[in-house]
Amino acid sequence: MNENIESKVERIKKLLNELVEKGELDYALEVIDKCENVIKNDIEIISMKGIIYYAKNEIEKAEEIFKKGLLVDFTYADFYYNLGCVYELKEEYEKAAKFFARALEFATGKETIDIGKKLNNILCKISTPLNDEIKIAFFVKPGLDSFLNDIILGLMDEYFVRKITVTDFKQIDEGMQWADICWFEWCDELVIYGSRHELAREKKIICRLHRYEAFTNYIFQVEWENVDKVIFVASHILNIVNSKLGGKIREKSIIIPNGINLQKYNFRDRKKGFNIAYVGYLNYRKSPNMLLQIIGKLTQIDKRYRLFIAGEFQDEENMTYFEYLIKEMGLNDYVIFEGWQKDINTWLEDKDYILSCSIFEGHPVGIMEGMAKGIKPVIHNFVGARDIYSKEWLWNSINEAVSMIIEEKYNSIEYRRFVENNYGYDKQLNEIIKVISEVNVVGVPSFIANKLQNSIKTTDEEIKKYYNNFSSYLKRDRERENPRHLYIKNRLKELIKPYYSVLDCGCGIGIISEYIKNMGVKEIIGIDISHENINYACETIKDVIFLEGDIVEINLNKKFDVILMIDVLEHIPLEKYPQLFCNLKRHLKESGYVYMSIPTFEYNEFIRTYRPELLQIIDNSISMEMMVELCKYAKLKILFYNTYGIDVPFQYNEYIIISEPQYEQLWSNLIPQF
């Protein structure tokens, strides 16, 4: 930035301060909007914009701006501090404390004292100390973060994240030193360097592999034994890379497609029209010549057809041919170049079709952006396309593409719903959080590794089918007073307060959930893997939220005072226990607890020997030692343990489980304060 520009920026900042002091907030925003296109990514102006929205009491907008500011500069303490103030105003004190603590890491001078005071005030409003946060560094080259920013924003509340735009390998040195988990957004020089780093074996490393990397030499240069998880955006890319590498990374590979944030794309129910959109670069892989063949045939049918292009050429040779062919085919009036679009949602608003002619893709976002708006996709049948899209949207020949455009069939709701059901942003984020949870823990507990060697794995579909059929048995408990339920209800009377929020995992047909609801709790949610159980619960019980889902994997994006698992743990596949306990911790408030009741190890083994017909599809025998190891794995602690009986004195174990920080706080209360 030269001296003239610097002085101009300073004058603008001075003007903005004066406008804010005078209370002319709307005029100040106008000034910012006008100068943002010229003065890009100035952190002080971004911060000021967020503060103005905060002053206008547009809190959600302020929060969005401060978070996006952290994508520009993760070391700017004001962004963290301002977000702490946002969450304090929203009375989300645990989040506020996190962001004030993060602000302290980057603050200097007197501001550290002010932030420290603010943090201490907030800590007085929460019942437990802050956990040590998981730190995640995202490494990416300049200009290659378009798939990454939404992921970072989605993880920002849960984890301490930093986006590091790498221009010098020293940034990787510093970032890996800071982070617990190192995320490399592409399989390129950055992950090659990171996987060979002296810290590589100490840190958890995730690499996301898109498309082009599969056809480079990069994949052979990575030290894959130091990479903990490889995320592929599509199955055909995974298969190509694993084939080239002899399958050596298949066990650590997972498919998580790109996610579309549907809130960014306005949907409307559309009809067939004449405006065709193409989004992206124009190069040989994108087959731009087919674009011209298609629009050429369409204009012969109806002169109202137009091809709009949002993108640019990547080589002069291709551009020269394309321009020549447009002139030769007489298409100058029918092909409109509009360049890269900052606001693709607005640009697509008057388009009727989203056209792709690519011969190869990973998991293309542009097509799904159009579908999210209700625009009909017309997609060349590239390698892997059948695994991503419905075959009715795929074409093999120019004539097929033209037929798809001129036909009457057009269903906007179907296109939007397809993206929502398969490639929604929330679904992508939940899968990523699961990966982070898996790589962040120290190895699988030994008792699981030992038992799995000789175990027979039961599929999720077999389990769901079993418990759908088991629903009729559970309904009998509505016709009789189950003595097990009587004991549990009496115990819950002691444990649950009216202002609690409760998550009932494996709720069955909702008998315990209904009892808790009648205790007057603030919120009760029941989750079960069986749709038969959930449907019955929804039909018979009011004012309780029942959700069908797997408690090992589900992410509700909220935390609870109490999580219940009553006669559930023993029926979950053994190999899922580590992930389950991590997921319980994720949903547990820092002051909350998990209540579990399970058969004793001895009682279950007795049934296995003498009454095997009473066993369910999965019925693990769980010892106290197992529970201790699982809690240690997920950074939980057993606060209370008891054995009780219904038919015999030693039939069931019950546990109250809390987080490690809460457990440590209980002990620290015994230490004399001087």
TrEMBL record:
Organism: Caldicellulosiruptor diazotrophicus
Signal peptide: none
Extent of the TPR repeats: 77-110
Pfam families assigned: Glycos_transf_1, Methyltransf_23, TPR_8
Domain Glycosyl transferase family residue range list: 271-389
SMART domains: TPR (SM00028)
UniProt entry keywords in alphabetical sequence: TPR repeat
UniProt feature coiled coil, ranges: none
UniProt superkingdom: Bacteria
Segments crossing the lipid bilayer: none
Protein name per the record: Glycosyl transferase family 1 domain-containing protein
Organism lineage string: Bacteria, Bacillati, Bacillota, Bacillota incertae sedis, Caldicellulosiruptorales
Alphabetized SUPFAM superfamilies for the sequence: S-adenosyl-L-methionine-dependent methyltransferases, TPR-like, UDP-Glycosyltransferase/glycogen phosphorylase
